[in-house]
C-alpha cells in the first residue's frame, strides 16, 4: 500500500507509474480525502484542547450559576467533538478504501510496455530436443497413457477439472516433493499454511479489492480460498515487529491454489494449463530494503534452476509495466518449452513488492535493538507450479512408442519407475 503522504509528496511519479501500467486509481479522491482528514484532525485536536481547558475551568469555578453555564458549554463542546470524530472516522475509512485501489510504484529499472507482448526476453537456456516423430501435446500423451482423465474430471466438477492417476499422478507428486526438497536444501524453511483466509488477510496481501472476481469464497463464512501461498505468507507476521537480526527470512510451501479462470476460445482451453484447481510450490522472502534487489536475483535463480535440473529449455522474461502484477514493482517470468504445443509456457512468476505488502499487513522489523521499526520488503516466486512442470516433462520426455521417460532427478521419488507406460498407469 502507498501511504497518502507518499502519494502527496510523489504525485508525478505515482501518476506516471499508474499510466505506465495502463491502470487507473482514485488519486484525486485520495488527495481530497487526505486534505479533509488533516483538516479534521486539526479541528478535533483543537476541540479536545478546548474541552480540557473547559473541564479545568469547571473544577475551579465556585459560583453555582457560572459552573452550570460552563458545564452546558462543555457539553455542547463535547457534542461538537463527537460529531467531528465521527466525521474523521468516516473520512479515514473512505481514504483507506481508496488507498487499497492504488497499485504499487514501479521499480525505475522496470521496462515500460503496454502488455505481455512487450515483456523483455533476458535469457534463453537449453537445447530444443530433436524428435524423430511428431511430438504430441500433453493431453493426448496423458490420455493415451491412461494417466490424465479429463472426462471424469468434467463429470465431477465441470470444465477445467481433471483426474491424474497411476504413475502420472506419482510423477506430479514427485515433482512437488523434489521441488520442496530442492529449496529446503538451499535454506528455505518449509511451512504448512492455511488454504482459506479472511477478507482482512486478502486486503493485507493485496489480492483484494483488485482480484475479488478471481477468488473462490465460502458462502457462509468470511473465508476465501487462496490463489497462491503468497497470500498466507504475506500475513504470517501481520501486526508484528520482527526482532533485529532475523532478516532475511526465506520460506517455501506447497499448497493447492484456487482461481477462477475466464473461459476463452483457443488452445488454452485444452489440457492442464488453465484450470480452476492446481498446486504450487511457492517461495517467499522478508528482507531489509537494501537487500531486496539481491533477494529478487536469488529467487529468480532458484526458479530457473528447476528447468535446468530437469534438462528442459527455458527462458527468462522481465515483465513490462503493463504486465506487472498490481502488487509488484519489478518482476520476472520463467517459461519452459512445451514442444507438443510448440509454445513457451509460464511456470513461475517472481516479484519484488518493495514495502507495499508490509504496509498493508503492518509488518515491521527493528534494524537493531531500540531502533525505530521499519517496513521490510517482501518478495515471492513460484518454485514452481508442479502442474505446469508436469506438462513440460510429459511433452519433452515423450517417446515414439507413447511412453514418457522419467527425468533422472525425479527417479528417486518414483519408486523405481523410470518410464511411464500404459500398463504402469493402470
- Portion of residues within helices: 25-40%
**Amino-to-carboxy terminus distance:** 51 Å
Topology pattern, helix = H, strand = E: HHHHEHEHEHEEHEHEEEHEEEHEEHEE
**Stretches with pLDDT under 50, minimum 5 residues:** none
β-strand number: 16
Largest sheet data: 8 strands, mixed
Query: DSSP helix count?
Result: 12
Q: What is the average per-residue confidence, as pLDDT, rounded to a whole number?
A: 94
The proportion of residues in beta strands is: 15-25%
**Structural class by sheet pairing and helices:** alpha+beta
How much is the radius of gyration in Å? 27 Å
Globular, elongated, flat, extended or rod-shaped: what is the shape? elongated
- Write out the strand line-up for the largest beta sheet, numbering strands in chain order: 1-10-11-12-14-9-8-4
Structure in words:
The chain has 426 residues and is α+β, with helices and mostly antiparallel strands. The chain contains twelve helices and 16 strands. The strands form five sheets. It has an eight-stranded mixed sheet with strand order 1-10-11-12-14-9-8-4. A hairpin with a 4-residue loop joins β11 and β12. The radius of gyration is 27 Å and the shape is elongated. The protein starts with a helix and ends in a 6-residue tail after the last strand.
How is the topology of this model organized?
Layout: H1 4-9, H2 11-21, H3 27-60, H4 64-99, E1 120-125, H5 138-144, E2 148-149, H6 150-157, E3 163-164, H7 166-184, E4 189-191, E5 196-197, H8 199-205, E6 224-225, H9 230-235, E7 241-242, E8 249-258, E9 277-287, H10 292-310, E10 314-318, E11 330-338, E12 343-352, H11 356-361, E13 364-365, E14 377-382, H12 386-396, E15 404-405, E16 419-420
Helix pairs in contact: 3-4, 7-12
Amino acid at each position: 500500500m502507498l501511504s497518502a503522504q507518499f502519494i502527496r509528496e510523489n504525485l508525478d511519479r505515482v501518476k506516471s507509474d499508474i499510466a505506465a501500467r495502463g491502470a487507473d486509481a482514485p488519486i484525486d479522491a485520495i488527495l481530497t480525502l487526505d486534505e479533509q482528514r488533516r483538516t479534521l484532525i486539526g479541528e478535533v485536536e483543537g476541540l479536545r484542547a478546548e474541552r480540557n481547558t473547559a473541564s479545568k475551568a469547571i473544577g475551579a469555578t465556585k459560583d453555582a450559576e457560572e459552573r452550570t453555564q460552563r458545564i452546558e458549554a462543555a457539553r455542547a463542546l463535547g457534542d461538537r467533538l463527537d460529531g467531528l470524530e465521527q466525521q474523521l472516522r468516516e473520512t479515514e475509512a473512505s481514504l483507506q478504501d481508496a488507498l487499497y485501489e492504488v497499485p504499487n510504484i514501479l521499480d525505475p529499472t522496470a521496462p515500460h510496455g503496454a502488455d505481455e507482448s512487450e515483456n523483455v526476453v533476458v535469457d534463453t537456456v537449453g537445447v530444443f530436443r530433436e524428435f524423430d516423430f511428431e511430438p504430441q501435446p500433453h493431453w493426448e500423451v496423458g490420455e493415451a497413457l491412461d494417466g490424465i482423465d479429463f472426462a471424469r474430471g468434467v463429470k465431477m466438477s465441470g470444465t477445467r477439472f481433471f483426474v491424474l492417476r497411476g504413475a502420472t499422478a506419482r510423477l506430479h507428486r514427485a515433482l512437488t516433493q523434489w521441488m520442496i526438497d530442492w529449496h529446503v536444501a538451499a535454506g528455505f524453511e518449509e511451512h504448512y499454511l492455511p488454504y482459506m483466509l479472511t477478507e482482512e488477510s486478502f486486503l493485507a496481501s493485496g489480492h483484494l479489492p483488485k482480484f475479488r472476481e478471481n477468488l473462490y469464497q465460502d458462502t457462509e463464512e468470511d473465508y476465501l480460498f487462496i490463489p497462491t501461498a503468497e497470500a498466507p505468507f504475506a500475513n504470517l507476521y501481520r501486526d508484528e515487529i520482527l526482532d533485529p537480526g532475523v532478516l532475511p527470512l526465506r520460506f517455501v510451501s506447497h499448497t493447492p491454489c484456487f482461481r477462477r479462470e475466464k473461459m476463452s476460445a483457443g488452445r488454452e482451453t485444452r489440457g492442464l494449463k488453465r484450470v480452476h484447481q492446481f498446486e504450487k510450490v511457492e517461495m517467499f522472502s522478508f528482507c531489509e530494503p537494501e537487500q531486496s534487489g539481491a533477494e529478487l536475483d536469488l529467487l529468480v535463480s532458484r526458479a530457473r534452476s528447476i528447468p535446468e535440473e530437469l534438462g528442459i529449455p527455458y527462458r527468462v522474461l522481465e515483465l513490462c509495466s503493463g504486465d506487472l502484477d498490481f502488487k509488484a514493482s519489478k518482476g520476472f517470468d520463467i517459461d519452459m518449452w512445451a514442444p507438443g504445443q510448440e509454445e513457451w509456457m509460464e511456470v513461475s512468476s517472481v516479484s519484488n513488492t518493495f514495502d507495499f505488502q508490509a504496509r498493508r499487513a503492518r509488518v515491521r522489523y527493528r534494524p537493531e535493538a531500540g531502533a525505530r521499526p521499519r517496513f521490510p520488503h517482501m518478495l515471492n516466486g513460484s518454485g514452481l507450479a508442479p502442474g505446469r512442470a508436469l506438462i513440460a516433462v510429459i511433452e519433452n520426455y515423450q517417446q515414439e512408442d507413447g511412453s514418457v521417460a522419467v527425468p533422472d532427478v525425479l527417479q528417486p521419488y518414483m519408486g523405481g519407475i523410470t518410464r511411464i507406460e500404459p500398463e504402469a498407469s493402470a
